[in-house]
Amino acid sequence: MSNAQLTAKHIPYIQRAMRCANPSAKELFLIMEEKRSNLSVAIDVTTKEELLFLAKALAPHVCTIKTHIDMITNFDIHLLLELQDLSHKHRYLVIEDRKFADIGKTSKSQYEGGMYKISNWAHLVTAHSTPGPGVIEGLRKTGLQLGRGMVLLAEMSSQGSLATGQYTEATIQMAQQYSDFVIGFISQHRIVEEPYFIHMTPGVSLSENSGDFRQQYRTPEEAICRDGCDLIIVGSSIINAADPVAAAREHQQAGWEAYEKRLGS
Ligand code: 5BU
User: Fold this and answer.
1) In this structure, are residues 92 and 31 in contact, taking their beta carbons and an 8 Å threshold?
2) 105 is catalytic
3) Helices of type H across the chain
4) R_g (Cα) of the chain, nearest Å
5) pTM of the model
6) Atom of ligand 1 at shortest range from CA of 66
7) Each residue of 117-129: pLDDT tens digit?
8) Could you give the 3-state DSSP secondary structure of residue 238?
């Protein structure tokens, strides 16, 4: 296949890193290549002890750790300092799955202020595109100078999601307008061909998992080879496993094998 014919899903992560204007996007592709991991673990737990225990144990296997910091009942600043320390030591990025969805001014205040001061520690954050470009502009004002990035929700994994069709198309256009800060999408499929945009996908599991509350799952191979996504987000199948480290290793391996298969296809 000549270079001109290569679509993003056939380009190695390392080469895609070189095409990124955003430093966090570049770093993410480099970490994925270096650690041979396209696995993000969603550590959805309710105490800082559990979060740190799992972050430490799973860190060698993942390229990112995804948090819902507002689930933590005993949150304090030490949790963030330790998460940051671990991210340097084990080379992973932190995605705070905050799903900002307000006007730009409010989202900006929620991003940099309040109890969590998310912009201080999260390399990446998620946002809905429902408010229009203002939400990107608000977060970008704070995040760009810190080298942060954001990920737009273009599709969701839950059955009956309204993020389809024209909504997804409009989300793509918003991302293209601000590609210095929007590093990619949460989606269920590859939706664009620009190699610097990363497609992160939740709703992934190796086990025969039927999700609660209409969550839908498919395997790493289906997500990466069939659907063209770049990074798999796995929560309960790892963190609720009898042996979370072994489950992380299995998902890492399955995700990486699917990626190598895709490159060769
Ligand atoms: P699970 O336990 O593997 O189902 O966890 C999936 C995680 O991804 C969880 O933290 C969700 O909040 C998150 N998620 C999702 O499942 N589906 C989506 O469309 C988006 C986020 Br956006």
Assistant:
1) yes
2) no
3) 13-17, 23-35, 48-58, 77-90, 104-112, 134-143, 165-177, 220-221, 236-239, 244-264
4) 17
5) 0.97
6) 10
7) 999 999 999 999 9
8) helix
